[in-house]
Amino acid sequence: MNSQESDSQQQDLREQPVRGNTAAETLTGAPTKRGGLRKSPAAFLAISLASVVVLLQIALAQQNGDTKKDDIPDAPSATRPFPGPLPPPSSQRPANPPPSDAGTPPPNQAPPTEANPAAPADPNALPEPTYAPGVAPPPMNIKTVPAGGATDEGGPANEELFKLRTNVNQVVVPVMVKDDSGRMVNGLLARDFAVYEDGKKQNLNFFTTDPFALSVAVIFDVGMADVAVQKVNQTFSALEGAFSQFDEVSLYTYSSSVSKASDYAAIGRRLTAALDSLKYVTGRNNGPPVTSGPLGPQGPIVNGVPIDQSSPRVVTPPKESRVLNDALVTAALDLGKRERSRRKVIFIISDGREARSNASYRDTLKVLLSNGIMVYGVAVEGSSIPGYGSLQKLHVPLAGSRLGYTDILPKYANATGGEIFSGFSRDAIEKTYASALGEARNQYTLGYVTHATPSNTHREIEVKVARSGLTVTAKEGYYPVGLSR
């Protein structure tokens, strides 16, 4: 019996489900039923209070997170530069707060936008100062004066105690030295030269063999025969190639009057255009002037009587004018205004004839020597023939006329230290361009200080070389006018 009862009790225990404690039973200590079991009011109250506590803790955590988020700077961008560190609290703010590098624009400038981005910061600029809240910046000390009334603030008094001004009468003498064969002689030193002014030896304070940049006035004689003019027109490309990139050139033409074709300019399109325009210039027609006949200026004639009765019966041909002196004076006055650091040269292409100029030879030479100008040139046509050119240097006096010299160019060249080259053919003319300008650029340059006062008195210069068999070419003198410019 006892054994049957224990077996039945063990089977009942196996059939009964095992109950565990739920969360409500744990909190309240009261058992509940699963699957829709009934819950007590105390359990609901405990659960509600726990939920409220959890929600309050979450809200407080979010509020603290938002407050700390304000202290985190925004990411830098093109329109919002990276701000500097925030200033310390007012209780820990130093006496001299560090500068702030915030991206806020100054009050007088518009904020940066996409159309007007902020300018990059200057690394050498001083940073803007930062002030505590409620502290105004100090006022700026700005002084205004009427327009043109500002004066420079002088430095220390001892800097302006003495100022000396003096006029240095420096005389510059370009010298060309050649041997018996006509070749340039190089390698001479300052001790090989001796310069005399009015017979007194001068102490040289300047000597160089360096080439000089040129200021050249090119004068073209368009009053020559048309055959000579057209021959020269074909050589302009060689003339332009004879100049260097450091030279400056102006162009003049003359016949019965002087005309300026182009002002001073470096080698380039302007000079090329001016030379191209001269290619269409024609010279003087060959032969005597026509004063009568069917081609005369009086028109057609019937039985010796002109049809046009108003035309003159007697026609006097105009006198020929070749104002070479006036052309030299015009070019020399313009050339005298160029920089003194350049070598001033007049390069003339002509047959050398001079007639009826307003300026005389003496006046023209004075202008040339006063401005330190050398005359180089190319003699064409009859003046380029050997032997014939020497005869043309003579003056032909005729009563009641002003024919002047038939070839006066060599006189100007010898007096100014230049040279005249002969160019009878086109090839000879082209070769003389490079030779003449090369000699003008590469010369010995001597200098000394003269004690002559500015005046119109001519001073004679003589240059000697302490070597035999050499030919020295230099200007024959100068006029001490405006030496201290």
Q: What characterizes the major β-sheet? A: 6 strands, mixed
Give, in order, the helices and strands.
Answer: HHHEEEEEHHEEHEEHEHEHHEHEEEE
Radius of gyration: 52 Å
Q: State which percent range the strand residues make up.
A: 15-25%
Helix proportion of residues, in percent?
25-40%
**Unreliable stretches covering 5 or more consecutive residues:** 17-37, 388-404
Query: Can you count the beta strands?
Result: 16
Instruction: State the helix count.
Output: 11
Q: What is the arithmetic mean of pLDDT?
A: 76
Shape: elongated
Biggest sheet: strand arrangement: 7-6-5-10-11-12
What gap, in angstroms, lies between the N and C termini? 154 Å
Strand-pairing-aware structural class: alpha/beta
Structural notes for this entry:
The strands form four sheets. This protein has a six-stranded mixed β-sheet with strand order 7-6-5-10-11-12, with helices on both faces. It has a four-stranded antiparallel β-sheet with strand order 4-13-1-15, with no helix packed on it. Strand 8 and strand 9 (305-306) form a beta hairpin. Helix 7 runs parallel beside helix 8 (361-370). The protein has eleven helices and 16 strands. It has helices at residues 2-15, 23-28, 41-69, 226-233, 236-241, 269-278, 324-335, 361-370, 388-391, 409-416, 426-441, and strands spanning 170-178, 193-197, 200-201, 204-208, 214-221, 248-254, 258-266, 301-302, 305-306, 343-350, 373-379, 420-422, 444-449, 459-465, 471-473, 477-478. With 485 residues, it is α/β, with parallel strands linked by helices. 24% of the residues are buried.
